[in-house]
Amino acid sequence: MGLLNSIKKTIGGEAKPAGVATEKKVEAKKEAKPVANKIKLGHVHLSGCTGCLVSVADNYLGLIKILDDYADLVYCLTLADVRHIPEMDVALVEGSVCIQDHESVEEIKETRKKSKVVVALGSCASYGNITRFARGGQHNQPQHESFLPIGNLIDVDVYIPGCPPSPELIRNVAVMAYLLLQGNADQKALAGKYLKPLMALAKRGTTACFCDLMNDVINQGLCMGCGTCAASCPVRAITHEFGKPQGQRDLCIKCGSCYGACPRSFFNFDVIPEFEGISEIIAGALK
Amino acid sequence: MVSDPYLGKYTTCVSARSTDKEILQKAQDGGIATTLMVYALEQGIIDGAIVAGKGDRPWQPRPFIAMSREDILKARGTKYNISPQISLLKEATRSFGLDKVGITGVCCQMQAVRKAQLYPVNMRDVPGKIALAVGLFCMENFPYKSMQCIVEDHAGQSLHSVKKMEIGKGKYWIYTERGNVVTLPLKVTHKYEQPGCHVCLDYVSNLGDISTGSVGSPDGWSTVFVRTKVGNDVWSKAVASGMFETKPIEGVKPGLELVTKLAKEKIDKNRATVEGRKTFGVNKALRDPYA
Ligand SMILES: Cc1cc2nc3c(=O)[nH]c(=O)nc-3n(C[C@H](O)[C@H](O)[C@H](O)COP(=O)(O)OP(=O)(O)OC[C@H]3O[C@@H](n4cnc5c(N)ncnc54)[C@H](O)[C@@H]3O)c2cc1C
Ligand code: SF4
Ligand code: SF4
Ligand code: SF4
Q1: pLDDT at A8
Q2: Contacts of B95 by beta carbon, 8 Å cutoff, 6+ apart
Q3: pLDDT tens-digit profile of B75-101?
Q4: Which numbered ligand comes closest to the C-alpha of A264?
Q5: Ligand nearest to the CA of B193
Q6: Do A224 and B82 count as a contact with CB atoms less than 8 A apart?
Q7: Chain A residue closest in CA terms to B9
Q8: In CA terms, which of A34, A99, A132, A200 is 20 to 30 Å from B200?
Q9: pTM
Q10: Residues of A in contact with B111 (CB under 8 A)
């Protein structure tokens, strides 16, 4: 808790211009560069439906605050007028890669080359998700038929599964990425601990399915029937019979949410029990 | 703030009982869970509560979203088999449109709530809408068919005839409508436990806003831990408005000592189980969910 308290004191306040400055000066400063240590954030749009980007935007004022104080949006085809992938601290990649589309392939490789941290934003980038069901045949590029999650082409650092990923998880990762890159020692430590399981998901693999719960939770004797998986499934493929999850596997779109959400996929005792303090830090950072 | 390796963080621990006679009639212990949710609903602290109501079969729970006192009361009493409470967590906010969700559940379900808040994987609109999480103590739970084996095969009672079940004082107690009381030693019931419970590292719902159970307090009373700011706020207001009688935990028997002993027993045993999974096969480990 001592750690969390010290973090609370430093974040939220530090980014603001000094109170002694005259109004005029503050204005001028703001236009130039209000916060020296902002990170460079980008959104790379591959074969995704823009639902992930909408979820980013659904943080409303939280997003504005992030863009004001913590991050410059240096690349985003929808929102920023930049045509070529620049150097980025954190790249949020939405969508899978169509391997018949030369440009997409080049774009993801360049993203890796130019980014410190590559985040697979959403289930298509992480696991292929609904794009796994593509068979091509669409105008005007009917030969575009093979879609792979980005982890099949490059190394990925962090996964944010979800279809679409929840705005709150995107927000948490954004704040933690900032703390990791620009924070003091305590903040870096917290961010490292927080991001670790999402980094482990990125190492774990590029396929997802209800079967993950069968293989790695239920068959492993770990399921305790809490119901989380059913709540997280975007297509309601999971019901509980006698307290245990049943997946309608034909409905499953392979998004990986159920596994990521399950308390028995990962549960880090150095982070989750601190929910109260950490939630306050995140809320404080975005106030 | 006390921070105990087994009992978690808490600011207050008391023995308590609801002052609501109607709630107490069918409550498992001191009616804490039900009274807190009713109070929170009536005060506008929550818009509704996820509780364990009646399922299709006798003594089978089914989680549902209670939006009235009457509905919350339907969930009174412990059902010793699995009620997947969290399956409704997003449903409550997204389909029912609740902005302030109350939830009761066992320890692992409190863990699930907090994971959903900090790592909301496809849990849009959940993190900021948990208004009150009341956790129950929990040594273990049973699959439905296990409970059926215990009650019908071992105790020889029809599930339809059972009025109350309870685990306490080292025994599984079955009370029937006609006044029968059957007890089974827990060594008979152990093998029927839900396997997932054997890696559970929480006994007194360390992650609830408030947590409650029977152990530590006299019959008809409950032991209550108040843990978070939210918990403190609700608990102090509820006590101030006369919803509960309370006694200092130091003044009741068997008190905190027994709670600590049982928590330690459970958690140490399950830690050993988690450890043992590492060498389960020949150079093959079972997965560690906490690694
Ligand atoms: C599986 C299980 C094991 C338990 N083990 C222990 C123990 O080892 N030691 C101990 O002291 N206490 C244990 N308890 C808690 C105890 O049995 C009481 O539930 C608790 O004291 C609350 O009593 P009350 O009078 O305040 O609740 P009441 O007012 O009677 O309300 C009961 C509440 O419990 C919830 N509930 C009932 N069944 C379930 C279920 N299967 N899953 C999730 N929620 C449920 C309902 O939603 C309701 O809100 C256990 C409870 C459960 C469900
Ligand atoms: S979320 Fe995990 S532990 Fe909970 S019911 Fe689903 S598979 Fe079981
Ligand atoms: S069962 Fe649902 S949550 Fe799990 S991978 Fe399939 S679609 Fe996603
Ligand atoms: S023992 Fe643990 S895992 Fe099992 S039902 Fe109780 S709280 Fe959940």
Answers
A1: 67
A2: none
A3: 999 999 999 999 999 999 999 999 999
A4: 2
A5: 4
A6: yes
A7: A273
A8: A200
A9: 0.95
A10: 226, 263, 267, 272
